[in-house]
Amino acid sequence: MNFTRKVRAAAVQISPVLFSRQGTTEKVLESIDKAAQMGAELVVFPETFIPYYPYFSFVQPPVLMGKEHLRLYEEAVEVPSPVTEAVSQAARSHQIVVVLGINEREGGSLYNTQLIFDADGTLALKRRKITPTYHERMVWGQGDGAGLKVVDTAVGKLGALACWEHYNPLARFALMAQHEQIHCAQFPGSMVGQIFADQMEVTIRHHALEAGCFVVNATGWLSPEQVAEITTDEKLQKALSGGCCTTIISPEGNILHPPITDGEGIAIADLDFALITKRKRMMDSVGHYSRPDLLQLQVNSSQWAVVSGGGDLPTPPYGHPSEEGIFSPLYKPG
């Protein structure tokens, strides 16, 4: 593991092209090109950015959101598909690692999915948000532990979580235990108001300190015109404002680029991996500061399926310690 390198990272705050998978994808490709021109080796986009975050579910009751939910189905992204191929080609062309949030469609279900493309265009990780939050449960299905994985990439060991997954300390610890060097965080943005941005900053700075890693955080943004497209109710429009905090945090909890809180923009910072060692020398949560004789985490890292390979119903998995100090299941469905 290289602790002496430096990596230039970019976090993109951007608005989608509402109701258009193609339009939003084109904006992603343009932003990858911009980030690459700025010397970025890693670029992170907001949560479920293609085609757009389901803001409708936050301001409409379930009985009224059927039309918008179906429209999201039509514009959602399959993996693989022309969208993922286009992003893969852009990553490969610019030799840049891309972390992208999508609404993924698989059959009759949608998922909040994070994709990590390595600099050679390879899809290094596809993970699904393990528990959709509040209103999101009417939109997306649940992910599984197979996505709680840190992957080796051209810029180092990357982990990723979406939005309020950062309030699940065990999910964060599962990534910390795999020694993530850069944590890629994604939030929707343009929701709830300034309090959401304030809480977000506290959350990502805390993870950087606790994990001893860099955090690259990207949030989406809606223009006033887009908010009016989502709802004409002025009271509800207030719920679709603020909540943006696109920034980059060091392992010591310092802000490396002033948070972008309004409008579109790209946060850029150089990540000096020597700061990881500097932080962990003082406090390594999964090393000399841990107490595995007292506290351990068990992780079911199986990718679950509705049918197992042998035709039998899956049975609860039980784990044993792996070499990395986290728990892995004995049973893996076919």
Question: Would you write up a description of this structure?
Answer:
With 334 residues, this protein is α/β, with parallel strands linked by helices. It folds into two domains: 6-282, Nitrilase/N-carbamoyl-D-aminoacid amidohydrolase, CATH 3.60.110; 291-334, no CATH class. The protein has helices spanning 21-37, 56-59, 66-75, 82-94, 169-176, 194-211, 224-230, 234-237, 274-282; strands at residues 6-13, 42-44, 97-106, 109-117, 123-128, 151-153, 156-162, 182-187, 214-219, 246-249, 255-260, 265-272, 319-321, 327-329. It has a six-stranded mixed beta sheet. A six-stranded mixed beta sheet has the order 6-7-8-9-10-11, with helices on one face. Strand 3 (97-106) and strand 4 (109-117) form a beta hairpin. The model is unreliable at 315-334 (pLDDT under 50).
Give structural attributes:
disordered C terminus; alpha/beta; six-stranded mixed sheet; 2 domains; Nitrilase/N-carbamoyl-D-aminoacid amidohydrolase; single chain; 14 strands; 27% helix; 334 residues
Structural class comes to alpha/beta
**Arithmetic mean of pLDDT:** 93
Based on the coordinates given, report the CATH architecture of the largest domain.
Answer: 4-Layer Sandwich
User: How much helical structure, as a percent, in the residues?
Assistant: 25-40%
